[in-house]
């Protein structure tokens, strides 16, 4: 008997998103979609969360924040990248200040594409994440502590974008 | 008289009842908001999940304080249901709450600090009214023992209606319901990240959840004491009071901490003290 997949608590972080995906995530919590019926709660605290939901791409302002949130979450944990910007950088991927999708920084388990991602696909992504979460618990996977030392060493913005 | 059997029953059954009450609470809340809501067993899933998670702590003493919080809450409830001294119950309850505050202060985190300070303010806010409730029950029944108050034939609530209303007012603070959920709250509301529980994670957060179930049962038992003269009315009153708390929770926005302290002291001073004074003089003093 496992309880992890019955009570996934999420933490939502908006990394330079245009707010389109964020509104869709919040729409999941409304009476229309009501994700709480799956036991999903939107916590504001990484220490309580099991699923890290990120929207938007990485830039210089938020890379430390994303790492900090990820490192503070207790195992087992999964990361869901919501929206095309979080998956690959989207239309912003060649911008001078954008490093690309979230997976450039932290391990991402589920990609939910779309611009903006629809609530149905977000819920589908979270439910897929539950399977990954359960697998991680069974195999006792301990997530790495992500750091940014390499980035600090050669600080080249232009490295991001199409490669 | 102290009744050990009831104490044991409390220790074993209270988490089940408390968890179910929390589950029903979430279901009713969801229906009030036009949602389907989670399963009634959801609080048990949540706590089960928390015990499956990794324990990450900033400071090891946090776990010690969390365990002390559980132990003293169980002690408080066991003493109450065994029919012990009501004043001792209230002091033990405060001690349990202080351990939660210490646990929050043990982690050097601004969010946890603010939550702990707000928790202290909450304790300050409800404590006078809770003690007045105990004194009121003493004046009404001439006994501080829970066993005597629960088995009295005197309609306690009719003698101290003001104190009962005042107690309902602070019960909202104790149950961490809006508008008084200033230190931490349930139902995915956020308050300064997560207030006192911010730095607790995994199993220690699970312990705090279980403690909250114990506390809910204890508080509902306290409500029952006002209606001890008739068990049927008593149980009905407990249910109605809890439904009322859910309604208040869902129809009010959170207020500032200044209002919580001021209003609960004002209520304690007006309805509590006036009720107590009236009862004292009408009954010709305590003999």
Quaternary state reads: heterodimer
- What is the global morphology of chain B? globular
Global Rg of chain A: 15 Å
At the first level of CATH, what is the class of chain A? Alpha Beta
Order of strands across the main sheet of chain A:
2-1-3-5-7
Global outline of chain A: globular
The name of the CATH topology of chain A is Rossmann fold
Number of strand segments of chain A: 7
Number of helices of chain B: 11
The count of DSSP E runs of length 2 or more, i.e. the number of strands of chain B, is 0
Low-confidence stretches of chain B: none
Structure explained in plain terms:
The complex is a heterodimer of chains A (163) and B (287). In chain A, 31% of the residues lie in helices and 17% in strands. With 163 residues, chain A is of the alpha/beta class. Chain A has a single domain, classed as Rossmann fold, CATH 3.40.50. The mean pLDDT of chain A is 84. Chain B has one domain. Chain B is 72% helix and 0% strand. In chain B, helix 2 runs antiparallel to helix 9, helix 5 packs antiparallel against helix 8 and helix 8 runs antiparallel to helix 11. The longest helix of chain B is centred in the middle third of the chain and has 32 residues. Chains A and B meet through strand 2 of A and helix 2 of B.
Nutshell version of this structure?
The complex is a heterodimer of chains A (163) and B (287). Chain A is α/β, with parallel strands linked by helices.
Lay out the secondary structure.
The complex is a heterodimer of chains A (163) and B (287).
Chain A: E1 9-14, H1 20-29, E2 41-43, E3 51-55, E4 58-59, H2 63-72, E5 78-82, H3 84-88, E6 98-100, E7 110-112, H4 119-138, H5 149-153
Parallel strand pairs in A: 1-2, 1-3, 3-5, 5-7
Antiparallel strand pairs in A: 4-6
Helix pairs in contact in A: 1-4
Chain B: H1 4-32, H2 42-52, H3 61-81, H4 86-106, H5 110-141, H6 146-150, H7 156-159, H8 161-174, H9 203-225, H10 231-251, H11 257-282
Helix pairs in contact in B: 1-3, 1-9, 1-10, 2-9, 3-4, 3-9, 4-5, 5-8, 5-11, 8-11, 9-10
């Amino acid at each position: 008997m496992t309880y992890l997949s019955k009570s996934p608590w999420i933490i939502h972080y908006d990394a330079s998103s245009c707010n389109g995906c964020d509104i869709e995530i919040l729409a999941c919590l409304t009476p229309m979609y009501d994700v709480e019926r799956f036991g999903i709660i939107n916590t504001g605290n990484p220490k309580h969360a099991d699923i890290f939901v990120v929207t938007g791409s990485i830039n210089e302002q938020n890379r430390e924040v994303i790492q900090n949130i990820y490192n503070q979450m207790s195992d087992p944990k999964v990361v869901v990248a919501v929206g095309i910007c979080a998956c690959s950088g989207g239309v912003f991927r060649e911008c001078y200040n954008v490093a690309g999708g979230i997976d450039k920084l932290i391990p991402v388990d589920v990609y939910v594409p779309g611009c903006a991602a629809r609530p149905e696909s977000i819920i589908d992504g979270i439910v897929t994440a539950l399977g990954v979460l359960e697998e991680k618990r069974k195999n006792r996977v301990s997530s790495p502590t992500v750091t940014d030392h390499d980035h600090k060493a050669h600080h080249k913005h232009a490295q991001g974008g199409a490669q | 008289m102290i009744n050990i059997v009831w104490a044991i029953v409390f220790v074993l059954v209270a988490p089940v009842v408390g968890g179910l009450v929390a589950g029903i609470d979430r279901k009713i809340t969801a229906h009030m908001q036009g949602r389907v809501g989670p399963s009634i067993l959801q609080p048990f899933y949540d706590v089960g999940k928390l015990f499956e998670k990794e324990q990450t702590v900033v400071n090891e003493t946090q776990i010690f304080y969390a365990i002390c919080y559980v132990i003293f809450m169980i002690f408080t409830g066991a003493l109450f249901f065994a029919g012990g001294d009501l004043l001792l119950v209230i002091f033990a309850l405060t001690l349990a709450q202080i351990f939660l505050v210490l646990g929050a202060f043990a982690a050097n985190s601004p969010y946890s600090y603010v939550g702990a300070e707000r928790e202290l303010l909450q304790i300050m806010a409800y404590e006078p009214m809770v003690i007045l409730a105990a004194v009121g029950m003493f004046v009404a029944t001439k006994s501080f023992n829970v066993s005597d108050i629960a088995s009295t034939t005197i309609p306690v609530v009719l003698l101290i209606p003001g104190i009962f209303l005042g107690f309902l007012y602070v019960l909202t603070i104790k149950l961490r319901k809006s508008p008084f959920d200033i230190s931490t709250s349930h139902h995915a509301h956020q308050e300064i990240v997560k207030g006192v529980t911010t730095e607790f994670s995994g199993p220690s957060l699970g312990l705090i959840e279980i403690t909250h179930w114990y506390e809910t049962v204890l508080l509902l038992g306290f409500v029952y004491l006002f209606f001890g003269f008739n068990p049927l009315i008593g149980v009905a009153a407990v249910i109605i009071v809890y439904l009322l708390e859910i309604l208040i929770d869902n129809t009010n926005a959170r207020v500032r901490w200044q209002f919580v302290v001021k209003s609960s002291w004002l209520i304690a001073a007006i309805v509590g003290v006036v009720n107590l004074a009236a009862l004292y003089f009408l009954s010709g003093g305590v003999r």
